[in-house]
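With this grant's support, the team has encoded backbone shapes as discrete tokens. A representative record is reproduced below.
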Amino acid sequence: MTWTNSKDTALRERAMAVIPNGMYGHQSVMLLPDDYPQFFDRAEGAYLWDVDGNRYVDFLCGYGPNLFGYGHAAIDQAYVERMKRGDTMTGPGQAMVELAEALTAQVSHADWAMFCKNGTDATTMAMMIARNFTQKKTIVLAKGAYHGAQPWCTPLKNGVTPADRANQVFYEYNDVESLEAAVREAGSDLAAIFASPIKHDTFVDQKLPNPDYARRARELCDEHGALLIVDDVRAGFRLARDCSWSLVGVKPDLSTWGKAIANGHPISALLGADIARFAAATIYATGSYWFSAAPMAASLATLKLIRETDYLERTIALGERLRTGLDEVAGRHGFGLRQTGPAQLPLIMVDDDPTGAKGYFWNNALLKRGVYFHPWHNMFVTTAMTDADIDYTIEAADDAFKLLKAAGPLEPVAKLEFMHSLAG
């Protein structure tokens, strides 16, 4: 089938009339290569079909939720069966208690759970609980880390006031001295240290946490009576069957979860240790759909697969197969790739590409060959992928590098320059 985008183009024109800028948020493709589709028709397993019928091996996985494959039968069956009996009701269903029990049994630092819808809900609750627990205001965060889209943490500051960003001090991820300096700046007002499980900022190489940095974050919170918060919304259950910082032997007081915990059904969670139980019980946080039963049933089915299958080992093996193959074909054509982060949560960027032009060209060529990569955001591996999917991706990358080599010098990507100017 020949790649086409006529239906997507028509939908974009209609969207411009009724949706600000035609689309918004991280789902907007305004800053992606020009041919990337905005609208999709269906998804199954490891694959995504756009409205024009083009099929892709999807390495974005819905920006993370797809862990066990789009439309996983057992997970979706649990959702549908619970929905038929009642989903968003006047009060929660039994599944809420069962899910809290399952998550606190699964995550070693957790003694209680609260549920919401988006990662931002969970990180905002975590901040509120830390401030309630300590009766202090200042939070310490890593520069460039993403914790959501509320005024206190949104990456773009349009519509944000200085008051929204008050009581925040920043440090460099993995830098112990920088972290200590930020804590000193917070002084006696420190409420919490936020940390991502890995450095998964956009446009920069990913980094695993240095154990010394992670341990020092824990020590500083203990010394100051503050709470340590690990934001596991993006990476939760993709690095470990426990909180991601279990891999460096550090237990947070609070952890935030979303994306993969129900394989795409809308739910997020905040897990906490007993020390913060009363503080959690005495904030006001709620939402009309936070207590819906069907996503909780889907999450219970997802957790069963996390406990009982080799999903983690499988995604690691698939990711390593991809990494090895891409390095080989890149080198064959005289290019280098910066493949950083865990293999199952990769960020893949073309090396020696200061303007992004090579990466955009290469990713666009992959798209036309049925592979959905992202040029500057980390990606994900799903258990629904097969060795054949990975091998097909490597073959498509080989073809894309041939085209890139033949293209010669490329113009800088103007849309990236614009985005960087907005971010300031």
User: Anything to note?
Assistant: The first strand starts at residue 40 and ends at 44.
